[in-house]
Amino acid sequence: MSTVSDHEVRPPLTLNDFERVRRVRIDEPEAVAAALAARERRPLVQGDRRLFIIAADHPGRGALEVRGDVMAMADRYELLQRLTTALRRPGVDGVLGTPDIIDDLAVLGALEGKIAVGSMNRGGLRGAAFEMDDRFTGYDIESLHRARLDFAKLLLRINLADKGTVRTLEAGALAVSQAAAARMPIMIEPFMSEWADGKVRNVLTPDAVVTSIAVASALGSSSAYTWLKLPVVDEMERVMASTTLPTLLLGGDPGGSPDETYAAWANALTLPGVHGLVVGRTLLYPPDDDVAASVDAAARLVHP
């Protein structure tokens, strides 16, 4: 059979799959580490040197909303079903998640031959008074290494009017230094942020993104293993001219028409230094609920 057919004929997750996850968690918790240790790994970059990663670390920060539905990502079984559907599509290189998500997927066998990216700081809970103090409450470099994951990821929101930012900067610098020492690629997702009506808002102007890149690029004792995860904004040519670091595009919060979103991604993917996409809710919870079709459309942009 062709690769596409192999992906299409595999059935969705069943009640037995979910029962296996529950049984492992109560009777054989050591099987989680065993599944991670035994999983088939692949080189980080290969072929066209591009990556298409599905993101699922939003729930760990209390961000469950999709298109106005505040509990859209609350059903873990539905999320796992959507994730495994996405990971089985041709052209999907891997997944980004918190330890609970990665552990579930490992037990389900969904990480075989995929890039596994571990999310590190989820302490800046959405809507919290302490949101800018984005402490590292997920993976650290040692646990990523122990779990045999392939890539680290940290969120770096820089709010010049909030003292909580400095703790995140310090922790981020340490993580970058440790990643370089361990020779583990680390993906920084930087934003210039501000408080607006009691909520944290990321500033998505070209100047703000360029400034965030400058700060993120200088973190740690070495940038040799540092990647960037950047939003698609106006003047992306100027934005990408501000860094030599390999960059993946951030899919962003779902909104607007899918055609406009895909067109913006397609244009940005042509720029030097851009090596793919990291997209979560936009593809996992599309307006028409067809996860496979949404993922396939994005995959064709990354791996034409």
The residue ranges in which pLDDT falls below 50 over 5 or more consecutive positions are 1-9
Using the CA coordinates, give the radius of gyration. 18 Å
Say what the CATH topology is. TIM Barrel
Percentage beta strand: 15-25%
Query: Numbering strands along the chain, what is their spatial order in the largest sheet?
Result: 1-2-3-4-5-7-8-9
Shape: globular
Q: Would you identify the CATH H-level superfamily?
A: Aldolase class I
Kindly report the average pLDDT value.
Answer: 94
CATH secondary-structure class: Alpha Beta
**How many strand units?**
9
Structural class: alpha/beta
Largest sheet: 8 strands, parallel, barrel
Plain-language structure description:
The chain has 304 residues and is of the alpha/beta class. It has one domain (8-302): Aldolase class I (TIM Barrel, Alpha-Beta Barrel). The protein has helices at 3-9, 15-27, 30-38, 76-87, 99-107, 141-146, 164-182, 206-217, 236-240, 258-268, 281-284, 291-302, and strands spanning 51-56, 94-97, 115-119, 151-158, 186-196, 199-203, 226-231, 247-250, 274-279. The chain has an 8-stranded parallel barrel, surrounded by 5 helices. α3 crosses α5 (99-107). The longest helix has 19 residues, at 164-182. The protein starts with a helix and ends with a helix.
